[in-house]
Amino acid sequence: MLSVQDLRKCYANGTWALQGVTFKLERGNCLGLVGVSGCGKSTLARIICGLEGFQSGEISLEGIRYRGLRRQDPRILRRQVQMVFQDTSGSLDPRCKVWQTLEEPLTNYERLSRAAVRSRVEGLLAQVGLGTDLAGSYPHELSGGQRQRVVIARALAVEPAYLICDEPVSSLDRETREQILSLLLKLQKPGDSTARGILFITHDIALAFRMSTHILVMRDGTILEDLHGGASCARDPYTRGLFAALPYPETGGLC
Predict the structure, then answer these.
(1) Domain ranges in the chain?
(2) Model pTM?
(3) How confident is the model over 201-240, as pLDDT tens digits?
(4) Which of 22, 87, 123, 138 is 20 to 30 A away from residue 10, measured at CA?
């Protein structure tokens, strides 16, 4: 279980990005996190992945506190929690070919022969629906959807227990978006305690319900509402406003 308790983050300019955020994510489940831009979603994602620090509160991974993990071996945290970034161009090294991008985490965290690494890279490409013919391509030679598949494959390379997806489809066209969402849905195994847990971050509350039946609504760095089972349980006016703003007529009756 990934547990976040009373997490608080304040930047040097005095701006509070997170104020008392608390939730739990179990393996085999997908938790949606919804909010408008600037509410603290990406800051929370970066903290969970160990890319930023925090002032107070506690995060624990399978019962072990993050602070303890950082003292023991930060590599344990990086192996167990991986992130899929929103900006596919910025999250891939433009100087590395696809096979180099996927090979790096394997050589850093595994003791494998060259043949085994090559086999794993081919397996990762197949898992995300890419052919081996793209292994020698640079990021700028790929489409947005192909780059996002590479980012997902890199995150899966070390077989993490938890996957943090920060707006993974917001910059993609509709057809590619559906392909990536289908891929993420295939990675889910609801109720399987040995499967990975997924934190799906988005500004689209309807999309959050599509990916998960349990979502958190964030506003100004706080968890405003915890929704289970459907939009009909929304009580806060802010949450209901998010549903009302959706451009999908078929979802209008949900709130």
Answers:
(1) 2-254
(2) 0.88
(3) 998 888 888 888 788 999 999 998 888 755 556 677 888 7
(4) 87
